[in-house]
Amino acid sequence: MKRTKIKALLASQETGQQVCVKGWVRSFRNNQFIAINDGSTVKTIQAVAALDKFDDATRKRLTVGAAVGIVGELVESQGKGQSVEIVANEITIYGDADPEKYPLQPKKHSMEFLREISHLRFRTNTFGAIFRIRHAAAFAIHQFFNDKGFVYLHSPIITGSDAEGAGEMFRVTTFEPNEAPLTEDGKIDYKKDFFGKETNLTVSGQLEAELGALAFSDVYTFGPTFRAENSNTSRHLAEFWMIEPEIAFAGLQENMDLAEEMLKYIVKYALEHCADDIEFLEKRLLDEEKSKPMAERSPMPLKEKLEFCLDNDFVRLTYTEAIEILRNSKPNKKKKFKFPIDEWGADLQSEHERYLVEKHFKKPVILTDYPASIKAFYMRLNEDEKTVAAMDILFPGIGEIVGGSVREERYEVLKGKMEAQDISPEEMSWYLDTRRFGTCPHAGYGLGFARMILFLTGMGNIRDVIPFPRTPGNAGF
């Protein structure tokens, strides 16, 4: 028989038909009740294996984790917790799972333990829910931009430029360690390397997206980016995915409007299409936080938090206004901030961002007009010549989730900023050409996809919302 996915079967409720499901055993109770999950939903379907129908040898193989196929009649369930079940006529066991060795037995497992066996963690309810939501969010992003007429560009993963000017990059080379050819002054001669120049893994697709925007008007990239930053925190990864739209003939207002609309679209799509998974993760979070002090618990349940973001306009204020709020805040006056706010020009940390969102405004916040000295070279200098037309969007529980700006479209200003930051105008001549030929006001931003999934799922560690996390000392698979 043709296989039917469990999600479709639970939705149809058409009893009396012969059905075939295939999946993995989650539990086998009383030697006859098999709970099966196939990954299409967080829910399982129960199959009843009558005691007089299947031999003991078959029953012994119906262990947790075994891959099975069940053919039988879909009937109304007599038990609690499900509306339908399958009366099994045929059972096929495709793959055994020795209960003495299979580590995912039906009990509570810590996130730390599951990271140790991350090749199997997809099989748990928690990670099944997380990655179905991740899929839905990725689809929603593509649908959002497609419906708006944006062109999807694939920016290069190997690049010769450092978009951020940060210098924290992974080098790409074919030279053997300790055998790289040297120039006369003792430096590595990258002219003899594979690409004929020094190259690295990209930190951003933004600069290439700008090239596209100045031809197609509206473009976006969605791909992997890399940071060789030795940060072992719950918010940092060495490899992560970024969504980076770029819009021509646009300023800061249009940029903020697009980002807010996109974020709300993703949240709405997840609420509508992942209701069961969000409900499951909400219950998981509530259960996990029972042992925490009230001050450390989430301010609202997961679904309520997501709906709250939809129902409220994001607060918009300047960096200067935010500094005044932070400087006069109780945590700052009582020296409870790890990084005290003393004067204008301070680079805001996560604790400051979360205070603004979670304590002061209790809404998502968009901060604008940051000091030029703490922002990247490509951001447009404001008329005060002290600040740039930048924006960061801050979310509860996350801090910064989006960073963007109006791009400096004036050739001489951009060239001067590059020289001031020791970025070679010659090496970036291709970028400067966009300002020499048909330049126009344009803007864009980057959304860290993993941080978006943290927000949608309520998870606390970014390593748990990406399938194969790359962090300092860890590059499994």
Automatic annotation (TrEMBL):
Q: In the Enzyme Commission scheme, what number(s) does this protein have?
A: 6.1.1.22
Cell compartment(s), UniProt: Cytoplasm
By its UniProt entry, which Gene3D superfamilies does this protein fall under? Bira Bifunctional Protein, Domain 2, Nucleic acid-binding proteins
The answer, when asked if Nucleotide-binding is one of the entry's keywords, is yes
Any one GO CC term of the record: cytoplasm
The record ties this protein, via Pfam families, to:
tRNA-synt_2, tRNA_anti-codon
What domain of life? Bacteria
Q: Does the keyword Ligase apply?
A: yes
Spell out the SUPFAM superfamilies in the cross-references: Class II aaRS and biotin synthetases, Nucleic acid-binding proteins
Enzyme class, top EC level, equals ligase
Reaction equation(s) it catalyzes: tRNA(Asn) + L-asparagine + ATP = L-asparaginyl-tRNA(Asn) + AMP + diphosphate + H(+)
From the Swiss-Prot or TrEMBL record, what is one GO molecular function term? nucleic acid binding
One annotated GO biological process = asparaginyl-tRNA aminoacylation
Provide the alphabetized UniProt keywords: Aminoacyl-tRNA synthetase, ATP-binding, Cytoplasm, Ligase, Nucleotide-binding, Protein biosynthesis
User: Aminoacyl-transfer RNA synthetases class-II family profile domain: from which residue to which, for each copy?
Assistant: 131-467
Task: Identify the main location.
Answer: cytoplasm
Q: Per its UniProt record, what NCBIfam families does this chain match?
A: asnS (TIGR00457), PRK03932.1 (NF003037)
Assembly information from the UniProt record = Homodimer.
Family the entry assigns: Belongs to the class-II aminoacyl-tRNA synthetase family.
- Name of the protein described by the UniProt record: Asparagine--tRNA ligase
Question: Which organism was this protein described from?
Answer: Portibacter lacus
Gene name of the encoded protein? asnS
